[in-house]
């Protein structure tokens, strides 16, 4: 019965590794381009300037 434990642990490690790969791919897919980040920062600055909060 000891090999069942090893097989179970190997399966759990495989599931965890697959999850890590999926999360990394999702982060990369959702990452912003430098132009998008710059545009968002400009929008925030303009919003702060219009409200006068500095």
TrEMBL record:
<protein>
    <submittedName>
        <fullName>Uncharacterized protein</fullName>
    </submittedName>
</protein>
């Amino acid at each position: 019965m000891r090999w069942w434990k090893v097989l179970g642990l190997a399966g759990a490690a495989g599931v965890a590794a697959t999850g890590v790969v999926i999360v990394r791919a999702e982060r990369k897919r959702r990452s912003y381009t430098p132009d998008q980040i710059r545009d968002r920062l400009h929008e925030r600055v303009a919003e702060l300037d219009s409200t006068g909060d500095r």
